[in-house]
Amino acid sequence: MRIRLPLASLIVGLAGTALAGSVLAVDHAPHDFYGTDLPFAANAIYFVMTDRFVNGDPSNDHRDQGGAHHTFDIPVQGPNGETDNIGYLGGDFKGVLDNAAYIRGMGFGAVWITPIVDNPDEAFTGGDPVTWGASLADRGKAGYHGYWGVNFYKLDEHLPSKDLDFAQFTQKMRAQGLKTVLDIVANHGSPSFSMPVAQPMFGQIYDKDGKLVADHQNLAPSDLDPVRNPLHRFYHAYDDLAQLSNNNDENPAVLDYFVGAYLQWADQGADAFRIDTISHMSTAFWKQFATRIRARHPGFFMFGEAFDYNPDNIGQYTWPRNGGISVLDFPLRQRVAEAFEHPHSDYARVAERLYLRNGPYANPYEVVTFYDNHDMARLNATDDGFIDAHNWLFTARGIPAVYYGSEVGFMRGRAEHQGNRNYFGQARIDAAPKSRIYQQLVRIAQLRARTPALQKGLMLPVQFKGDQAAFYRVYQKGNEHQIALVLLNKGDAPASFEIADHLQPGTWKAALGGPNVEVAAGGALHATVGAHDVQVYLLDAAATRPDFVAELTRLMNERGHPGAG
């Protein structure tokens, strides 16, 4: 089919007076045009649940830990012989490091690992029993995921190996070309009440010296007495998530504790933080936290999880006055899942969540984009759907994050306690190159890794309609300049594109193979993109065409929320 692409200003609201279509030279230095100059934005992120990735060192499995409430290999039975698991399965730092070349080879520049802090040494006996597909049910579960911190200054014993503590891990990952994103938690600790008999470590928090500083004492939150019991002051006297402790963000001692803990891990080489449950603590807390972390580590990148599809609710965390902390882009994720799980859905629905001008975020180019994670059902798509999702994720605005195993469609469609967090393992990694999903992910992720315009460039939509999308990405700063034209086709048949809007003359290089295209002044670029495929054309030139410059200037000036300062 042939798609005639109308003006961007008519399609996605990038309104402005259309100037003459002729290409004119400008008589002044080129403008700076970029979505972000954040160094971290160059890196796509591969997210591993460390315990479930690869068991690189069986000597740290602690298979006998927990006694009657053992913590290793606790299967949950499902239908048709399927299983989930709520115990430790052995993944560790060595398993990640041993596969650093695999991750880097796909085109990722950073690895997000789950929390590394010490968790309880028994399986939890309180809460609700875990059944197939249950949510917020923790009875019988161990802290394999790392989110049940007890001592936030102490490394959990399941992760390190000889000569591979956290500082050595981050150093060796950097030597492999990978940054480390550390998942951190401040909102809660371990499950803290509802146990038939109080268990050691649960509901307790210890300081750097091993001193007990907080103890829930297996009491319901409403039974805590922070006025008379100093060990209760760390907690709010009301519940929040399941039976997890609810740390008191209004207590300065809580802030001091977590700043100290996470400065320690940043000092040991963490390159960025992903902040769990950021919306469960106040923006005042996060402003102080971010300020103190960045006082020692200037420009330190952080992004938070506010599990909310309302952009006005989550955007506030990105504003400088609230700490300038980026977020996972849940609103866009909602539409991305819709687009790639359902064939022939409309790309226009995705475009509505880009928020490129005067939107809810301080900078939409610095949010972390994704289509699934460990807390929701994995993308329920065909192989083609995963390929289309990756073609989008690695060319559109934002910093892409991909959950482990998605490169082969691992456990697609499965939620927690249905296999979402199942063990991946070395055998699957070794077999991954045979997967079509993997092969196409490598192709597009490696392109982003070597293309500044796709990492940091302004995004100017041209067409979002049906199965086709077309947009420019423009990076122009100082002596660097690159214009990318991205053409996406998620349809089942090849699609022909004819692009004239804002198009500059010159040699447009086909970045993914195929012939380059020579475009004359006032001409159009004609291209055919295969079914479930992408093409990216690159022009090594500064933006000079007046209507193009006008739209880019508008995008540059209006990138963020007008009141975000």
From TrEMBL:
Fetch the InterPro entries from UniProt: GH, GH13_cat_dom
**Which keywords annotate this record?**
Hydrolase, Metal-binding, Signal
Alphabetical list of Pfam families matching this protein: Alpha-amylase
* Top-level taxon in the UniProt lineage: Bacteria
Annotated ranges, domain Glycosyl hydrolase family 13 catalytic = 47-448
The residue range of the signal peptide is 1-20
| Keyword flag Signal | yes
- The protein in question is named Alpha-amylase family glycosyl hydrolase
Give the species this sequence originates from.
Dyella halodurans
